Each structure stands twice: as C-alpha cells, then as structure tokens.
Amino acid sequence: MRFVKRLSYMQDILLFNYPSTMVWYLVLVAALLMVPLCFGQYWVSLMVFMGIYVIVALGMNLLTGYTGQVSLGHAAFFAAGAYTSAVLTQKLGVSFWLALPAAGVVGALLGVIVGLPALRLKGLYLAIATMGFGFIVEEVIVQWDGATNGVNGLLVTRPHLGPVSFESDESYYYLVLVTVVILIIALKNILRTPTGRAFIAVRDSEVAAESMGIRLSVYKTAAFCISAFYTGIAGSLYTHFMLFIGPENFDFMVSISFLVMILVGGLGSVHGAVFGAVFITLLPELISLSKDFLPEFIAGQAGLQAAVYGLILILFILFEPLGLYGRWLKVKHYFEQFPFYKKGTFKRVRKFHRTEQQ
Amino acid sequence: MLLQQIVNGCAMGCIYGLVALGFVLIYKATEIINFAQGDLMMVGAFVVFTCLNLNIPFIPAFLISLLFMAFMGIVIDRLVLRPLVGEPAFAIVMVTIGLGIFIRSISGMVWGYDTFQFSGGLADVPVRIGSVALSSVNLWIMGVTVLLVVGLYLFFGRTKMGISMEAASQNQLAAYLMGIGVKGVFSKIWAISAMVAAVAGIFLTPIQFLNYNMGFVGLKAFPAAVLGGFGSVPGAMVGGIIIGISEALAGIYLPDGFKDVFAWIILIVVLMIRPEGIFGIQERKRV
User: Fold this and answer.
1) Domain span at residue B56?
2) What are the pLDDT digits (tens) for B169-215?
3) Rounded to an integer, what distance in angstroms lies between the CA atom of residue A208 and that of residue B47?
4) A52 CA to chain B: closest CA distance, Å?
5) B108: nearest CA in chain A?
6) Within a domain: residue B242?
7) Is the N end or the C end of chain A the one with fewer CB atoms within 10 Å?
C-alpha cells in the first residue's frame, strides 16, 4: 500500500503524481524511439497510424470525455485539416511546416463555427447536429471540385525539412512521435489550468458550473475549438502519410470510430485516449491474426471486422463503461490499497428521472 | 411536374416519417435515441424478401416479418438495453450505434452484399388524378402510414398501456412506484418500434432498393424527428413529409449535391432557430 502526504493544493494538479512516474514515461519515450530500429516497416507504419489516431482521440476526449459534449461529426474536422494541408502544399506550394499548423487552425475555426450554435443544444441534440454537420462537410468535399478534386481525390507528397526528408515511414514515424508527445504534454497542461478545470465542471453540471461563474458559451466553444485543432493537426499528418485522400476517407463511420476509440480507451483521461487509439488500430491486425484459428465459415466472412467492431462497442459499454483505462485503474487501485480494496469504489450512481440524465 | 415531385417526395417523406416514428416511440418511453432503427428497417425488409423467395405469399410474409421484428426488438431490449437503464444517455446512444453496426454486418453475412428488389403484393400501376400520374405504390405507402399514425396516436392517448408508457418516460422511478411494470413497458415499446421499422423497410423497398446498407437511409429520419419535435408522434410524420418534399424539390431547383444534404441543412437550421421542433415542448432541467 502506498501513502501520499498532501502538503499543498498544487499537489493535486501536478503533471506527475510521483517522481517515479516521470522516470517510467521517459523509459516509454526511449522505447518508442527505438521502435523503427527493432521492427519492420509494416509495424512502423501501424505505429504512425496509432500516433495519428492518438492525436484525434486526445481531441475527442477533451470534448467528450472532459467537457461532456458529444460529437458525431469529428470526421469533418479531420477532413478540414487533411484538405487544408493537401491544398496548401500541393496546389499553392506552401511549406508543410506552415500547412501543419494551418490545418489545425482551419479545424479550430470550423470548431468555433460548430461550437457556437451548439451552445443552445444539449446532449443528444448536439450529437445529431454534429452528425448533420459531418454529412454536409462530406458533401462539400465532393462538390467543391476546384479545391478538393471531388471524388477523384488529391495526391500528396511527404514533407522535407531542409536536407532532412520525411519520405520514409521510419522518418515520418519520428515526426508523428514528436507531434504526439508535444500535444499530449500540451493537453495535460491545458487540463491543469483553470480553463481545463472549467471544462470538467461544465461536464459534471452545467447549471452548477454556470453559477460558479463559468461562462458556458466561452468554455464550450473553447472545447470545440481545441478539440478541432487537435483533429485538424491529425488530419494533416494523416494526409501526408497516406499520400492520397478522397472523400471516402472521411465518412460517418470515421466519426464513429473516433468515438469508439475514446469509449474503449476510457472517457475523460489522456491515458484512455492513447489506449483506445492503440486498441482500435491493432484491432484489424488482431482479427486477421485470429482468422487462422476460427472455423472456415466465420473466418471467410467479409463483414467480420465490422461485426467485431460493433460487438466490442456493445460489450465495453455493458461490462466496462470506464474503458481499458478504467480496468487498469481498478487493477492498480486493488494493489495499491491491497487488503482494503472496496468493491464499490468505481460504481456509478444510476439516475431514473428523465431530466437528470441529459 | 412540380406536383409530381411533391407527391414522390411525400411518399419518401412517409418512409422517413415511419422511421422517425420508430425513434420517437423509443424516445418517448425510454429516453433513448435508437441509432439502429434504420438497420432494424433493413432486417424487416430482408425477412419479407426471404419469405417471398420461399414462395410464401406477401401478406403472410409481412406478418412473419412483423412477428420476427417484434421478437428481435424484445431480445435487443432484454440483452443490451435493460442492463443500461439509468446509465448516461451518451453510453446508451453509443450502444445503439454499436448494435446498428453489428446488425448491418451480420445481415451482410446472411443475405450478401448485393442489391435486391421485391414489389410484394404492390403492383406498380399508375393512378391518374387530374394531370398528375401517381404510382399506386406511393398511394399505398401514404395510406398505410396514415393508418399507422392514427393507430399509434390513439394508442398513446387512449389506452392504459399507452399512458403507462408515457408515464415511464417521464419518471421511471415514480412510474415504477405507481405500479407500472417499467421493464415490461420498455420491452413492448421496443417490439412496437421494431415493427414500425419493418413496415418502413417493406414499403421503402419497392421505391428504392434492398441492400444491407439500407439503414443509412434511416439516418435521414433524424432531421424529420427533430423537425417535428422529438417525442411527438404526429410531429415525426409532419417532419418526415416536410423533409421528403423539400428534398425532392431541392433535387430539381438547387445545384447538384444539395439533394443529399438538404435534410441536414434543415436540421441544423431548425436546431438553431427552434431546437424543440414544431410540436415539441420545452423542457426544464433539474440541477
């Protein structure tokens, strides 16, 4: 059992609770730096996708997990980032290093545009409105031939930095890794600030937050803005890794998969975002690996992946609503408080009145 | 030409309305928005398709489909949604999305990925009223829809079961204390909603197609339900018909691409101007 002495209020919002945690994270980063040396190109490219989805999941988790605003249209921000970056670099000849932040900024602007009307909407209405927004953006991409090449899509190249080229998957991996680490630290710090704590207050009770002097309009829009910024950055990185993008990369199911990531990983935690992104990226691999062990009539089905996907979503919500990170926390808690672990520690209170659930 | 398009849009709108009706029923009783409604619709249509292939006439096939869907609705409620009663709405919505994906992929495995068609008992003969030629299928759709809506409206307003469903939606705990079997009510409402979905699917097939992806049409029912005011039975129908007609008109008068997203544009405008919809009631939130 581990005892923590609380000596100051600042202790509650430290980046690392224990000094040992920081050491472990440094070890993790060092291990990640070694990945291209130890694994083949295939795994490195998978890791790149993981990194990109981690960024999306961070943004999603800030919006949904921390601020409590559900978005079913995040593919739109992803698309905005991707196309901004692609059009800027390929058609206008702007450097990637300007296009990357520009993608984030365009995403953020779009986030503000969505966030403003979203202020009047609560819960499920917001989900439906963002879903509609996603469909509209998808159609805009198809129709706006001049900029996006419509259904034909755009060809994109990988970036350079002076003499350093990010042409190979290995070098691109380092680019993504650095971005991910910067964005994780940034998010962790945002969550420590009064702004981040206001987000959490808005999630827990809008009315209570408002009466504590938190302006809902400002903070909800800010949450949309930051979340869309992250997603836009991820979109830009995705484009330059894929080398080709078309409208089909940004359909409704993409938005759903972003939500699945944070649900499976764990709502309202940075770890959860990372776990979820890693899990969802590895899922197709796990399925194709397990195909050898399944009976022929199941393994041969084309829809197997989607079925497993749907099933995992259902099972997680039914049996582990806190996600993978919640499971990890429970295990950790059990050992930390070893003989004294109480079964109901993570139990949620159910609510049976309609207005309480919204 | 214009009138023609309005009638076609009206028929499509009835389908949207029927799917929206499914949302509304479940929402009224259980406060859940069921994203799998479109996929239930698809399953209902496929059951009829299978029955017709087995040389069962249309009317018995229709009834078999309704029974099957009622059973499926109860199973879904019992297995997936009952354990989640009282959980946050967001979790339940995600579960229905997962359910939709699951049903869609399983249907793809069972019935294949091709596009099918059946006309059932509905021969497509043109009916002339003045200068407008109406397809008899469209008339059938409108007739059945009107019947269903009137029936459900009376059911909710007049019967004891309908009122107990309404009570369960207002406050589950209080309804339970008043002697309403809330669990049973939820199962029944899922069964009814799945049957309504099946009707929508069966009548959508003659005017569109039958495919494992058909459920995506169901998503367009969201604007319909929101426009009518979530939780209002006549609202869902009115919303559906407005969406159907305006979509048909957008196809003629507006540039390419507007037809597919027009419903969503309406949705966002409605949510910005009057989020509670045409027939909705503004709700207050308890802290």
Assistant:
1) 13-122+131-215
2) 777 788 888 888 888 888 988 999 999 999 988 888 888 778 888 88
3) 50
4) 23
5) A303
6) no
7) N
In the numeric block, which tokens belong to residue B277?
Answer: 């919809």
Q: Which of A70, A121, A143 is facing B257, going by the closest CB pair?
A: A143
Q: For residue A357, what pLDDT is reported?
A: 44
Backbone angles phi, psi at A161, to 5 degrees: -130, 100
* Residue B229 included in any domain: no
| Residue B21 located in a structural domain | yes
What interface predicted TM-score (ipTM) does this complex get? 0.86
Residue A350 confidence (pLDDT): 67
B18 occurs within a structural domain: yes
Quick check: B80 contacting A, CB < 8 Å?
yes
Structural domain boundaries in chain A: 9-344
With beta carbons less than 8 A apart as the criterion, state whether B243 and B266 touch: yes
Structure tokens at B23: 């949302």
Q: Cα separation of A230 and A183, whole Å?
A: 8
Architecture of domain A9-344: Orthogonal Bundle (1.10)
Contact A259 B264 (CB under 8 A): no
Give the residue on A whose Cα is nearest the Cα of B226.
Answer: A125
Integer-rounded Cα radius of gyration of chain B: 19
Residues of B numbered 102-131 whose beta carbons fall under 8 angstroms of chain A's beta carbons: which are they? 102-106, 108-109, 113
